[in-house]
Amino acid sequence: MKLRVDIKTPTPVGWIQKVLQDFPSFLQDHANCERKASAVATSFVAKYPDRNEIMPLLIETAIEELEHFREVYNIMQLKGVALKHEIEEDIYVKELIALCRNGREERFMDRLILASLLECRGAERFKIIYENITDNELKTFYHRLWACEAKHAEIYVVMALKYFDEDTVYKRLHELTEIEGKIMLKQPFTAKMH
Q1: CA 116 to CA 82: how far, in whole Å?
Q2: Whether residue 159 has pLDDT greater than 80
Q3: What are φ and ψ of residue 98, in 5° steps?
């Protein structure tokens, strides 16, 4: 059974054009996104320490995302690209988080679902990069990350299903997937993940 719900709104072609025009800036943002993805999994550990059923998955995900950061950082070092001093605010993510409902359980479910959607969007965009970049090493790297992001998208749904019934999870997942596409389309094209 496929656990994630595919994104409804594909990334417009203008995005990859911007990325390919300024790949060093994309690498900087990608590194920041991997750091933040690791922090998201870790924040679930901190905020929900009583959720023992998903603790191993959260720890594994945090470590994998940190490993991805290390890999992007190594690529940046080889290409002479420095990390940015500050992590800029991500309006796309901020608007998604604003969709979270109040209430401990509702917010918990929404955060898991949004984490899945972010991973789905990341998978889609890594696939676009893989299909359009000419550097063979980067092509191989982003092909592998595409699969990892898709796996992480499913892991967050698995976590939600441990605490909420399937109908409730997929209903909310479909709702947020529709809204995510609208939020994504509002963003200007930049050499960034979102």
Answers
A1: 29
A2: yes
A3: -65, -15
How many other C-beta atoms lie within 10 A of the C-beta of residue 46? 9
Q: Are 150 and 4 in contact (CB under 8 A)?
A: yes
- The distance of Cα 93 from the centroid of its chain, to the nearest Å, equals 10
Mean pLDDT value across residues 13-35: 98
Going by pLDDT thresholds of 50, 70 and 90, the confidence category of residue 19 is very high
Q: How many helices (H) and strands (E) does the chain have?
A: 7, 0
Q: Say what the pLDDT of residue 1 is.
A: 61
From the list 164, 129, 135, the residue with the least C-alpha distance to 149 is 129
Q: What is the pLDDT of residue 168?
A: 97
d(CA 59, CA 44): 10
Cα–Cα distances (Å) from 32 to 76, 101, 176, in that order, read: 12, 26, 24
> With contact defined as beta carbons under 8 Å apart, do 189 and 17 qualify?
yes
Taking alpha carbons only, the member of 32, 11, 13 closest to residue 123 is 11
C-alpha span between 160 and 146 (Å, rounded): 22
**4 SS3 class:** coil
Q: What's the CATH architecture for 13-186?
A: Up-down Bundle (1.20)
